[in-house]
Amino acid sequence: MVDAIRLRDDELHEEPAVSLESFLEQSNATAVRIEAGEDARQLLPYLDRLSLVEVSFPVFGDGRGYSSAQILRESGYTGELRASGDVLVDQVAYMRRCGFDAFAPDSPINPKHMEEALTRYEHVYQATTDQRTPIWRLRHG
User: Fold this and answer.
1) What whole-number percentage of the chain has pLDDT above 70?
2) Residues with Cβ < 8 Å from 58, sequence gap 6 or more?
3) In the chain, N or C terminus with fewer CB closer than 10 Å?
4) What pLDDT does residue 140 have?
5) How far is CA 81 from CA 59, 77, 97, in A?
6) Are the CB atoms for 122 and 114 separated by under 8 Å?
7) List of domains in the chain
8) Weakest mean pLDDT among 35-39, 48-52, 74-78, 115-119
9) Chain centroid to CA 117: how far?
């Protein structure tokens, strides 16, 4: 894994993320890692104490992490939400729309390509946690 790419201005969270099971068994952890298939809703009672939620993407085609991000952001989580694992530059814009604001890919991502991916499309087709107005709403009010 390469260094995390952060799209946040706050201080880097240094504490290692613990597993969801470990997090639920203790009272002092502020960073947790959700593996593919684990239910992010288990974290909802603890959002106020979390500084980092790391969501695992074991393979690029596994989209369950997008749902975890959406659930957490829609429930009011404002801390760092990091996608880690098999994260590809082609996915970054979609991950960002779901609420991810940090990335820890297994392979390096060229910063220029990442910026291009994040700014490639001016308009979006559906609403999500990033609050961008869908193009159909712009056209039809």
Assistant:
1) 96
2) 35, 36, 85, 86
3) C
4) 82
5) 18, 9, 12
6) no
7) 5-140 (3.40.50)
8) 115-119
9) 16
Between CA 131 and CA 141, with CA 137 as vertex, the angle to 5 degrees is 120
pLDDT for 48 equals: 94
Q: Are 81 and 69 in contact (CB under 8 A)?
A: yes
Residues 6+ apart with CB under 8 A from 25: none
pLDDT number for residue 132: 75
Q: What is the DSSP letter of 36?
A: T
Residues 6+ apart with CB under 8 A from 138: 123
Cα–Cα separations (whole angstroms), residue 128 to 30, 66, 99, 110, 133: 26, 11, 9, 26, 9
Question: CA torsion sign, 90 to 66 to 1 to 15?
Answer: positive
Which residue in this structure is represented by tokens 């490639």?
Answer: 120
Q: Among 50, 65, 49, 47, which Cα is nearest to 105's? A: 65
Kindly report the CA angle at 35 between 31 and 38, in degrees rounded to 5? 100
Please name the residue that has the structure tokens 């201080």.
11
